[in-house]
Specification:
Subcellular location: Membrane
Catalytic activity: ATP + protein L-histidine = ADP + protein N-phospho-L-histidine
Number of strands: 9
Keywords: Kinase, Membrane, Phosphoprotein, Transferase, Transmembrane, Transmembrane helix, Two-component regulatory system
CATH topology of the largest domain: Heat Shock Protein 90
Organism: Stutzerimonas azotifigens
Enzyme class: transferase
């Protein structure tokens, strides 16, 4: 699993661990070499001195010893071996007893045992001082490695942090934003900046093509829609039969709906996502009354009970095109997915609900239903699954929130909260 530590911290950790291993091995090597040399040299010295003492004893002479050296043997009571040295093995041994420290050299000759003991208090103190210096050097090396690692990490990460800030705080999607790569050396950071410039250029061109396409299509559709609307008005004034007038009315409604959608697409294409929500001059109640009149005939034709209910008053002003598009798509969705029963449009103090007694939406699909080209398992109509996606996009653009929940015993409830920071639950 990749490390979750920041990259700068990983540099410091790696640098410190490397120093810890190298310095630790070096310190242990010093301690081992000191012990090895100490044992080798002292063993040779004590071995030569013991040979001299045994020669003196063989000649009937008393052993010649300095003040820090003692001789013990099993051959005479006066040289009896003390208890603390009685279990030493042949050869060189160090014996530490509290604050006292001794070098012991043991030799077995037949059944006899000879020991040469030399005090090493002063040498042990110097050796301990050397080990303390080695330990202090080891700790200082680790601390120095940590500080040096931090300095190196800051220096290494400085261009990366700078690039991240430039990417985060600049309006990079603006066509006039300068390229980043020329500001960096021809190294890994420069290559990263160059890759970002290349990818960003492709994204800019893609967004420009999308905006131009949306704007061009929306603009060009206005003329034929206007012609259709005018023609419907002329036909409505002509002496037609009831069936023909009904068809003309349906054409007029479809043209009005398409005109609203074109205006919605054009508005979203012209405004940047980071801009504030688009203000308006219409109220929630007026849009709801308009949509009630618009969808009432279609609901009645399908045999559904359609009611406009009011649980509160919202005096705020909203963008007519965007709010009517949201409400219209939700009512159309309820109409398509409700075979019998009712559809309610309920106004609240901070938004509205669209409820129906239809087939409902499985809980596993309630989150995905707002994604583009996603339709329910029992899809109705000839849509492509873009209606609810458009609703979600408008709500996000305006700072509104939308959610869906189930109704008992069956049906769905779509709730839209109109506000900048909605936090209410369905």
């Amino acid at each position: 699993m990749p490390s979750k530590q920041p990259f700068a911290r990983r540099i410091v950790i790696a640098f410190t661990l490397m120093t810890l291993i190298v310095s630790g091995l070096f310190s242990l090597g010093i301690v081992g070499i000191v012990h090895s040399i100490e044992e080798h040299l002292v063993s040779e010295e004590l071995d030569r001195e013991l040979n001299t003492i045994l020669q003196d004893i063989g000649q009937g002479l008393r052993p010649r010893l300095d003040s820090s050296t003692q001789f013990f043997a099993t051959t005479a009571p006066e040289f009896a071996i003390p208890l603390q040295f009685s279990k030493t093995q042949p050869g060189f041994t160090e014996v530490v007893n509290g604050d006292e420290a001794f070098y012991v050299y043991t030799r077995n000759v037949g059944n006899e045992r000879y020991l040469l003991v030399q005090e090493q208090h002063e040498f042990e103190a110097r050796e301990q001082a050397l080990f303390n210096v080695v330990l202090a050097g080891f700790l200082l090396t680790i601390a120095g490695a940590w500080l040096l690692g931090r300095m190196m990490a800051q220096k290494v990460m400085a261009p990366v942090s700078r690039l991240a800030q430039q990417v985060q705080h600049r309006d990079q999607l603006h066509s006039s934003a300068p390229a980043l790569a020329p500001e960096y050396a021809d190294d890994e950071i420069g290559h990263l900046a160059s890759a970002f410039d290349s990818t960003l250029g492709q994204l800019r061109r893609s967004l420009e093509r999308e905006q131009l396409f949306t704007s061009d299509v929306s603009h060009e559709l206005r003329t034929p829609l206007m012609i259709i609307g005018t023609s419907c008005e002329l036909l409505d004034a002509a002496p037609l039969g009831a069936r023909e007038k009904e068809q003309v009315a349906r054409i007029a409604r479809a043209a009005a709906e398409m005109r609203d959608l074109v205006q919605t697409f054009l508005t979203l294409a012209r405004s940047q996502p980071e801009e504030a929500s688009l203000a308006g001059a219409t109220t929630l109640a007026s849009v709801a009354a308009e949509q009630y009149r618009r969808w009432g005939p279609a609901m009645a034709e399908k045999g559904l009970g359609f009611e406009l209910l009011e649980e509160g008053t919202d005096a705020q002003r909203y963008n007519h095109t965007l709010l009517s598009t949201v409400m219209s798509n939700l009512l159309r969705n309820a109409l398509h997915y409700t075979d019998a029963g009712w559809v309610h449009l309920t106004l609240e103090p901070d938004g509205f609900r669209v409820e129906d007694s239809g087939m409902g939406i499985p809980s596993g699909q309630q989150e995905r239903i707002f994604e583009p080209f996603v339709r329910g398992e029992r899809a109705r109509g000839e849509g492509l699954g873009l209606g609810l996606s458009l609703v979600k996009r408008i709500c996000t653009h305006q700072g509104w929130s939308i959610g869906v929940s189930d109704l008992a015993p069956g049906g769905s409830c779509f709730r839209v909260v109109l506000g900048q920071s909605p936090n209410q639950q369905l």
